[in-house]
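Before the break, one more example. Copy the sequence into your notebook; we will annotate it together after we see the structure.
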Amino acid sequence: MSQREIEQLLAEKEGRICARMYQRSDGTLLTQNCPVGFRVRVQRAGRMVVSALSAAMSLCVAAAQTPVPEQSSRSVQAAKSAATIVVLDPLGAVIPAAKISLKHTSGEVAYEGETDAEGEWKANAIVPGAYTLKISSPGFAANESEVTIASPTASIRRVLRVAPTMGAIVIVMDPPAEVTPSLIQIDPIPLVRPPAPKGR
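Here is what the structure looks like once it is written out:
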């Protein structure tokens, strides 16, 4: 305590106070915290902090060693086992929003969807086997082919041909009938000679 705090305490208690004083071997009194006791308290607090950190690290290690739930591991495995189908045009540009369907050999639709902005479509956890792949997009000719997906991470690329446009319709008409010109009779114009001059 400071000198002022000591005086204020004595004034409030009117001198009736019980206190313990620490006297050194040389006869002087301690007026501040004991350096040895303060050091002991600091060390004790440090040990408590170290113990708390050790306990926290033990919990982290235990959490890390906890087995991942089966559902989570399946989700990760499904994300990794996605077959990819890329749809391109004849110039190599991607075709977004292209309709895709994978059918079993029996004709039943097994998977369907459409390509994203990158021209890709992913089929999560696809079962390897033989399928009929059909791809369609406005402005392009539909593409249908037999594919064999050997693994769940297979990658397939397909190029769609531009749909043929409707040509101009040219109507050929029969040539007009020959027109026979009308016979026009022209009367001869009489030749009028000027009169001969007199005296000749």
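The first helix runs from residue 3 to 13. DSSP finds three helices and seven strands in the chain. Try to locate both features in your own notes.
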